[in-house]
Amino acid sequence: MSVKFGLSLSFQTNPGLNEAWDTSYRESLELASEADRLGFDSIWASEHHGEADGYCPSPVVACAALAVAAPHCRIGQGVALAPLYGHPLRLAEDLSVVDNISGGRIEIGLGQGYRPAEFESFGWNFKTRTRAFEESLDILGLAWRGERFDYEGRIYNVKGGLLRPPPIKPGPLPLWVGAAAPAARARAVRYRAGLIVAPLIELQHLTRQIKSYDDEAERQGAGSLPHSLMREVLVGDSAADAIKRHKPYIDHVYRVQYAPERTGQTYIDPATGERKPLTGDNPMYLSEAFMQDRWFLGTPAEIAAKMIEWLPRFSLTHFIFQGRQPGMTLRHAVDSLEALAKGVLPVVRAKLSSRA
């Protein structure tokens, strides 16, 4: 089993720490260069709109810069919100330009979006996002063939469309889709996309979600489709120390940007065994137990051991973690990458390779 290890970058600032927007972009690109030097495999840019912390609204543009900053890494979106790009053929052109800039290293990660305010700000109907997403996937697939094509949909139309420049490698580009619900997973399989999973799902539940995806792929006769997993990886002298070191940054990410009330998170009540809505004032939220159920934290040896235990259960192609949380200094981020590159990656790669 071979897993590629990568970084996710959101280019957010932490307003509480007085971080400038341009500093976040500059230092994130420097971090990508360090990740490339240290032997990480991929860099991914994510997308949201109208956020006070400057969350990256243009991951495809960011990917062009990342392709130059990290010349040996795969470059992807984790994920781009396809319905917000105006027209899918334009999105196909932008992605193909990045593929050409990078020498054929692009990974396409797409989602339909879940925040109504983002669609309202562009004048788009939030209720049509699923249809827009499916038509986007249709048009991207046709564009990547490299031939002229027509398409007539309910939302988008193409007349004599031709993608130029085409991707470096003929045929479809590597495609990843975020798909938490069963209907979304069925759609992802229909488009023969890999599954990319967000950081907040419990590891135990993730096992069931991936099995559901694989079962759907078998049902549709799609063969074996790949999986990618996004997590947090927090390095410290212990789990408690790792939490303490990262608390100002994690609090911003998961109490502001991804607050449970905003993302619709749930949890299993230990007293009743029922799954219930999760709120930010629940003592369990962002506790060590909460993090251990989802993430990898502690010393490099502890992180490596947990990865060796869990990653084979998911049959992963990519393991992706947040390389620089909002407000984190570049020195802190680089030190963490160096600790992982020295004490985690070689151990995990060797162990997983021996199981292949």
TrEMBL record:
Give a yes or no for keyword Oxidoreductase in this entry: yes
Keyword Oxidoreductase on entry: yes
MF terms in GO = monooxygenase activity; oxidoreductase activity, acting on paired donors, with incorporation or reduction of molecular oxygen
Q: Which UniProt keywords apply?
A: Monooxygenase, Oxidoreductase
Q: Which residues form a coiled coil?
A: none
Domain Luciferase-like, residue spans: 4-310
InterPro entries hit by this protein: Bact_Lucif_Oxidored, Luciferase-like_dom, Luciferase-like_sf
Instruction: One GO cellular component term, please give it.
Output: cytosol
**Which PANTHER family does its entry note?**
BLR5498 PROTEIN, LUCIFERASE-LIKE MONOOXYGENASE
Q: Give the protein's recorded name.
A: Luciferase-like domain-containing protein
Its taxonomic path starts at:
Bacteria, Pseudomonadati, Pseudomonadota, Alphaproteobacteria, Hyphomicrobiales
